[in-house]
Amino acid sequence: MNDPLPHSKPHYHLIDGLRGVAAIIVVIYHLGEGFCTSPADLWLANHGYLAVQFFFILSGFVLGYSYDDRWTGMTSRVFLRRRIIRLQPMVAAGVVLGVAAYFMQGSVTWSGEHISPIWVVLAGISTFFMIPAWVGSPLEIRGNAEMFPVNGPLWSLFFEYLGSLAYCLAIRRLSTRALACLTAVAAVGVGGFAIGNATGYYHLGVGWSLSGVIPWGGAICMLFCFSAGFLMARLFNRLPRLEVRGAFWWCAAVIVILLSMPYVDYGGCPWLNGIYETICVVFVFPLLVWIAASGKTTDSVTTFACNFSGDISYPLYAVHYPSLYLFYAWVWANNLTWGEAWPVAAALVAGNILLAWLLLKFYDAPLRKWLSRKGKSGR
Question: Is 200:292 a contact under the CB 8 Å cutoff?
């Protein structure tokens, strides 16, 4: 979800690779949602939603690294235009696929209520412009309180824009000490939200809806993750690197394990899940980013894995969910078990990865290149 790094600076290939690993886990996590009734009984990549917090930390780090020393001669308008060019083409693709999937489902809410096509189209338009659907409004076309019911995961792009705006207007102006204080305060907020059981499940699966405390939890997590990423970018050349042999594979394995961990409720103590998620977000994820930024690819296999997974990470995240809406409808209509549905689920993972690659090569990359040239010529 980040701008390409300046050619004059080294590229963090391992960070790109880890973003792709996390994106694939998000797809698997969303597949598992079709077979659970709550966050506590989801058994397939139970903590996959924490990948969004990992993405936010990555975004903060790469944006800080890319732009902290480049504001001389660059305006906020230029920065925000670059962010829009980076993010909006795949938002548009996700909206088109989401609207198409909704029509394929018969234009009905999950409870079976028919929705007029005009509201489906309006929901798509509002999603494109990152205007959330209020709970109970006609734009909330699925009846599931999603912020963006055309394509649910696009809620994180809403917070990505907020984080970019906060960086552009305020955070970049903070001293390193003030930024460290902001990060620490936000970390306490993250821990308080998770361990204090704000959601009812002692978890950080927040931000996807405007219902109750969910958007506030998303804002707190975004504030910490972006601030932590910005802070690490400032400190990276001042503090020791953590060079680990085979860093990409070790970090990828840790991410898979952390995001696949079952709901932590040992001895009937669900607050342990809040502690677990706080540790992951506040301590382990920043450490993994630091290790990845410290390392380099040293062989062709690792280089290919990082380049490919990094390339498809954002397109995959942005466009995979519409097909999962159809998957859910099929599973629930036929009362299928995972044992019966897994071949289709596996095909969806492979198909969405292929779709992400095709969209990147023949739509996203060419369009962004054209928009960037047009933006420069229009200055």
Answer: no
Taking only Cα atoms into account, the Rg of the chain, rounded to an integer number of angstroms, comes to: 20
Pull the structure tokens for residue 68. 């902290």
CA 279, distance to chain mean position in Å, is: 19
HSE-up of residue 266 (Cα within 13 Å, Cβ side): 4
| Cα 235 to chain centroid, rounded | 24
Tokens of 163: 């984080």
Residue pair 148/127 in contact by the 8 Å Cβ criterion: yes
| Residues contacting residue 35 through CB under 8 Å, at least 6 positions apart | 42, 43, 44, 331, 337, 338, 341
Using DSSP, state whether 114 is helix, strand or coil: strand
| 108, β-bridge pairs | 114
pLDDT digits (tens, 9 = 90+) for 175-210: 999 999 999 999 999 999 999 999 999 999 999 999
Q: Which amino acid is at 296?
A: K
Contact between 223 and 189 (Cβ < 8 Å): yes
What's the 3-state SS for 243-274?
A: CCCCHHHHHHHHHHHHHHCCCCCHHHCCHHHH
The single-letter DSSP state of residue 148 is: S
Residue 149 contacts by C-beta under 8 Å, 6 or more apart in sequence? 123, 133, 139, 140, 141, 142
Question: What contacts 353, CB < 8 A, 6 or more positions away?
Answer: 24, 312, 316
H runs (alpha helix) in the chain: 13-32, 51-67, 76-104, 117-128, 155-169, 176-195, 214-235, 247-260, 271-279, 285-294, 300-319, 321-334, 338-359, 365-377
User: Of all helices (H) and strands (E), which one includes residue 363?
Assistant: none
Neighbours of 194 (CB within 10 A): 30
pLDDT tens track for 43-90 = 999 999 999 999 999 999 999 999 988 787 788 999 999 999 999 999
How far is Cα 201 from Cα 264, in angstroms, rounded to an integer? 11
Quick: pLDDT tens for 216-246: 999 999 999 999 999 999 999 899 999 999 9
